[in-house]
Amino acid sequence: MSGVLDAHIHLWELDRVELPWFRPGLGLPETVRLADLAAAAAPLAASPTPVPGPGPGPLTGAIAVQAGASRAEALWLTGMCDPLLAGAVVQYDPADPDGWAVSLVGGPARGMRVAVPDRRADLADVAGLDAACERVAAADGVVEFLVRAEQLDGVAAVLARHPRTRFVLCHLGLGAGDPDVAWERGLRAVAALPNAWAKLSGIATAGDQDGSRLRTAVDVALDAFGIHRLLFGSDWPMSARVAPYPELVRRIGAALPPLTAEAAQGFWGGTARVLYRL
């Protein structure tokens, strides 16, 4: 194993960048730096994490996904120089569809996330989306989607319209929701497109004490995508409210079947390295 490349983390410093959604009571720190991530993940290097098949190894890199949606924050994030930061994904702003977010992809950003869980199910009200997908493809970048389960059919339609664009579904389009029949149908519609990948990120919940909910979601995702189109992402530091970093890795690993060395290397980082051109 070459170590873990975490495909989904967040960073912020509230004295430098503004996050409109941040408020006291969320259980999150006001400053989240790469050094904090390194400290949280340090036990992975100290002792092997027990998972079926080859272990994931220590954390060797991470992809930071922009937590807010401002240009200033994107420039701050993509301007970081740290060996632990493998790449950055900036946030698409539908109010500025031809602006800064798309222009950063292919330069300091490896991809662009379309975070629109508050929009229509068919995503028809996301301005400039089709043009942005084509521009990201031309820049050899990745388009990510953060959506609710009811929007998965809309995501599948976007993927079908842009076959040369690489797409990644954050949190399996599920997050903390219930892995029900409607979600599964939508996820399979997305997975049926060959230009779709998905992150096993943001799906562990504090109430899932026996891991049955997580296993259900992972089983569906494995059957729909196959292990070679799935990526590990922690959603740290959001995930720290559910479990410490090594425990989260253990829970995700325990929800997977035993993997071959090749499949394990891909899931824990190799697939992300290829997909994001790292």
**CATH architecture verdict:** Alpha-Beta Barrel
Going by helix content, strand content and strand pairing, the class is alpha/beta
Q: Can you count the helices?
A: 9
For the CA atoms, what is the radius of gyration? 17 Å
The end-to-end span amounts to 17 Å
Strand content: 15-25%
Strands of the largest sheet, in order across it? 1-4-5-6-7-8-9-10
Specify the overall morphology: globular
What's the helix-strand series? EEEHEHEHEHEHEHEHEHH
* CATH overall fold name: TIM Barrel
Helix content range: 25-40%
Could you list the spans in which at least 5 consecutive residues all have pLDDT below 50? none
Number of strands: 10
Quick one: CATH class?
Answer: Alpha Beta
Mind summarizing the main beta sheet? 8 strands, parallel
Question: Quick one: CATH superfamily?
Answer: Metal-dependent hydrolases
Average pLDDT figure? 93
- Domain unit count: 1
Domain Amidohydrolase-related: 6-278
Pfam family, one: Amidohydro_2
InterPro entries: Amidohydro-rel, Metal_Hydrolase, Metallo-dep_Lactonases
Organism: Leifsonia sp. NPDC080035
Describe the structure.
This is Amidohydrolase family protein. Belongs to the metallo-dependent hydrolases superfamily. InterPro entries: Amidohydro-rel (IPR006680), Metal_Hydrolase (IPR032466), Metallo-dep_Lactonases (IPR052350). Residues 6-278 form the Amidohydrolase-related domain. It comes from Leifsonia sp. NPDC080035. This protein is of the alpha/beta class and 278 residues long. The chain has one domain (4-275): TIM Barrel, CATH 3.20.20. It is 35% helix and 17% strand. The protein contains nine helices and ten strands. The protein has helices at 34-46, 71-78, 100-104, 129-138, 152-161, 181-191, 212-225, 245-255, 261-275, and strands at residues 4-9, 12-13, 31-32, 59-65, 85-91, 111-115, 142-146, 166-169, 196-200, 230-232. The strands form two sheets. Strands 1-4-5-6-7-8-9-10 form an eight-stranded parallel sheet. Helix 3 (100-104) links the parallel strand 5 (85-91) and strand 6 (111-115). Helix 5 (152-161) runs parallel beside helix 6 (181-191), helix 6 packs parallel to helix 7 and helix 7 packs across helix 8 (245-255). The mean pLDDT is 93.
